[in-house]
């Protein structure tokens, strides 16, 4: 048998991240988890020094090569949460890890990177496009200002839309596809995690959440999302490049059935 794969998972201590760690361990993979607590690497991805610390520690613990990266770390949009914090963690923390760990992925075996978006990016109305634009311009201060004006409830889908577009733009490039790295994104819908529980408990957001259509009639489970991650990290998914997999029980298809596929021109 060969050496076990080395997979980095951010947001590793709870929810979908924890389920993914468990799934990968069961497959025999070695996992380097990153989170604010209860992980191999303790780091705050909302600040530059935390991102740098995470990247340097992954390099140290991995010996300079990793085979996969999954970026679950993120915050939900809640009325009492600053939009600036949300974009710094959700978008800039994600992109910093993708870019900072890319050289280690190049050294890995059949490497894959998976960023976590959200179906809210296309199912929630009123996404502030200026937040998306500042994110994609790599203007963190500008994005933080715009996100504070928009509020975290609206900035959440903006941060996730920016992630999906970043993945779509970068996945086909020489630095990613050309280097043999499969870069894709997953857009979960309502999945039973602490983030969803906090949203459900909010007096403003809870009723809106319950009103959202889920044609399959239930919310997803972290284990189901972990299964999708395991597939994308595996050999059977090597032809995926720049894909955004919506895993939401049919919500987006129900709300936007004719929007995709969209013909060119």
What features would you highlight for this structure?
12% strand, seven-stranded parallel beta sheet, alpha/beta, oxidoreductase activity, acting on the CH-OH group of donors, NAD or NADP as acceptor, SDR_fam, NAD(P)-bd_dom_sf, 47% helix, 265 residues, 7 strands, Rossmann fold
Give structural notes.
It is a single chain. The protein is of the alpha/beta class and 265 residues long. The protein has one domain (6-247): NAD(P)-binding Rossmann-like Domain (Rossmann fold, 3-Layer(aba) Sandwich), CATH 3.40.50. 47% of the residues lie in helices and 12% in strands. The protein has 11 helices and 7 strands. The chain has helices spanning 15-26, 48-62, 83-106, 120-123, 129-136, 140-150, 152-170, 194-201, 205-211, 222-232, 251-255; strands at 6-10, 30-35, 41-42, 68-71, 112-116, 182-188, 244-247. A 7-stranded parallel β-sheet has the order 3-2-1-4-5-6-7, with helices on both faces. It starts with 5 loop residues before the first strand and ends in a 10-residue tail after the last helix.
CATH class: Alpha Beta
Order of neighbouring strands in the sheet with most strands: 3-2-1-4-5-6-7
**Largest β-sheet summary:** 7 strands, parallel
CATH architecture: 3-Layer(aba) Sandwich
CATH structural fold name:
Rossmann fold
Q: Give the tally of β-strands.
A: 7
User: Looking at the structure, what is the overall shape?
Assistant: globular
Structural class: alpha/beta
Beta strand %: 5-15%
Q: Whole-number average pLDDT?
A: 95
* Tally of structural domains: 1
- Runs in which pLDDT lies below 50 for 5 or more consecutive residues are none
Element pattern in H and E: EHEEHEHEHHHHEHHHEH
Helix content: 40-55%
| Gyration radius, rounded | 17 Å
The CATH fourth-level homologous superfamily = NAD(P)-binding Rossmann-like Domain
Tally of individual helices: 11
**First and last CA, distance:** 50 Å
């Amino acid at each position: 048998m060969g050496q076990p794969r080395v997979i980095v998972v951010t947001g590793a201590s709870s929810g979908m991240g924890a389920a993914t760690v468990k799934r990968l361990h069961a497959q025999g993979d070695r996992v380097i988890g990153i989170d604010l607590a209860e992980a191999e690497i303790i780091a705050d991805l909302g600040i530059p020094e935390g991102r740098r610390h995470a990247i340097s520690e992954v390099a140290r613990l991995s010996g300079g090569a990793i085979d996969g990266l999954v970026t679950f770390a993120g915050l939900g949009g809640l009325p009492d949460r600053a939009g600036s914090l949300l974009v710094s963690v959700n978008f800039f923390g994600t992109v910093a890890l993708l870019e900072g760990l890319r050289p280690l992925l190049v050294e890995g075996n059949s490497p894959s990177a998976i960023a976590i978006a959200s179906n809210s990016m296309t199912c929630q109305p009123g996404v502030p496009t200026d937040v998306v634009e500042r994110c994609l311009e790599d203007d963190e201060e500008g994005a933080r200002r715009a996100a504070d004006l928009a509020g975290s409830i609206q900035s959440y889908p903006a941060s996730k839309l920016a992630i999906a577009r970043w993945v779509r733009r970068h996945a086909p490039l020489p630095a990613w596809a050309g280097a043999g790295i499969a870069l894709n994104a997953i857009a979960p819908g309502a999945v039973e995690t602490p983030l969803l529980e906090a949203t459900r408990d909010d007096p403003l957001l809870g009723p809106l959440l319950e009103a959202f259509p889920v044609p399959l009639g239930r919310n997803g489970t972290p284990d189901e999302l972990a299964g999708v991650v395991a597939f994308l990290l595996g050999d059977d998914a090597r032809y995926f490049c720049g894909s955004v997999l919506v895993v939401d029980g049919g919500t987006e298809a129900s709300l936007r059935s004719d929007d995709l596929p969209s013909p060119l021109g």
